[in-house]
Specification:
It contains nine helices and four strands. By secondary structure, it is α+β, with helices and mostly antiparallel strands. It has a domain of about 325 residues: Up-down Bundle (Outer membrane efflux proteins (OEP)). The protein has a four-stranded antiparallel β-sheet, with no helix packed on it. Helix 2 crosses helix 4 and helix 4 packs antiparallel against helix 9. It is elongated, with a radius of gyration of 35 Å.
Length: about 450
Amino acid sequence: MLRHSLILSSSLFVVACAGTPQLSVAPDLALPGGYVAAPETVAPQETDWVAALGDPALGDLIGTALANNPQLAAARANTEAARASARAGQAPRLPSVDAGLSGTTRPAGEVYTTGVDVSWQADVWGRISNLARASTLNAEAAEADYAGAELLIAANVASTWFGLTEARLQRELAERDVATRQRQLDIVERRFTRGVVRSSDVRTARSALASSQATLAIRERAELQTSRGLQTLLGDYPDGAIAPGADLPTLTALPSPGTPGELIRRRPDVVAAEFRLAAAGFSAEAARKALYPSLSLSGSYSGQSPELSDLFSASTLVESLTASITAPIFRAGALRAERDRTAALARAQAASYVDTSLNALREVENALEADALLADRVNALETARAEAQAALELVERQYASGVGTIFELIDAQSRLIQAEGQLISARRERIDNRIALHLAIAGPFGVPAASSPSQE
């Protein structure tokens, strides 16, 4: 494993270390001992963030997605292809052997020819080893990408599942609003029949009911779309038939996020970026060594005979062994251009590594900061809902006694529905932020997972 103790360098210069080519070592990042936005008191680190979310259905859903999600299947296939490329990259280090057998018809009769050719390029400068190492590191990067894809699918399933639960709660809230508006309209129509209120009150109540019915249609559509989105993640036909959860879970205390140094060592996209940086360094080194002379050895073992049975006899076989040293003289600058190109790509990978690391750290800091702010928002909206409920009850009594107006009644009901809807969204947003935190720190989750390509 490549070294991970990193210190931030604004120049992005990459230092060489013993046994490792230039441009292959990750830039150092100056990391604090802990996250700036982390609260002083946190719960222990989660060993299974899916279970910690407190929804018993979530683990099975994620397990299904890991086994059936087509995007993850594509990532798995890409990783297997990278492993195959890595194996192919090792082949030039060994001799190549070709054998042939042919027969030719001539006026004098049949002539049979056989031969075995062996060739090998000596890795005098380590160029072939550099290329082989680069292909292996690219395969390791693909493995890290696959681990990141698994984590991302798990987080997306969790987020969409709770989004479906929120959609159900919003739809049920809209249904209650429609029922309340209908009940209010019935009261207004009875009062109008008795001559207590004007016809404008009836029309106003009907308008409020129609608006609530329109909102209900939007909520029903959102629930169906979210359900289909979840089924797509699970690899199922998106018929919208999956049942949502009954309620959003109540979050426990914020778990310890670990340290920035642990994040750099663990997060898959950062690890993949470091592997790719190292691979780019070895590729650049191989391009530089392509300017040096090369030593090749070749040998052959051939024979020719008019009789197939005599083809392999000692008298018909001829042996040859050749050694050659070649050095590039004139390639119109192609080799030097390739050397410069690969060196520039290595520097670009160094910058990409720093960018990936900083983005990872930013995501954790944002999620930690947002957790406390979202908790405050939930608490404030719970107070707003309670006050709106009390205000509606008061206005309903006033309207029934002829003191309040229809506009006050409709406004009080609207405020309650708005407060409840915002509270549901805020609870879901806080859960989403907690999921984003676990995704950002690459937290472990204990659900049945498809075997990784390396395990296979």
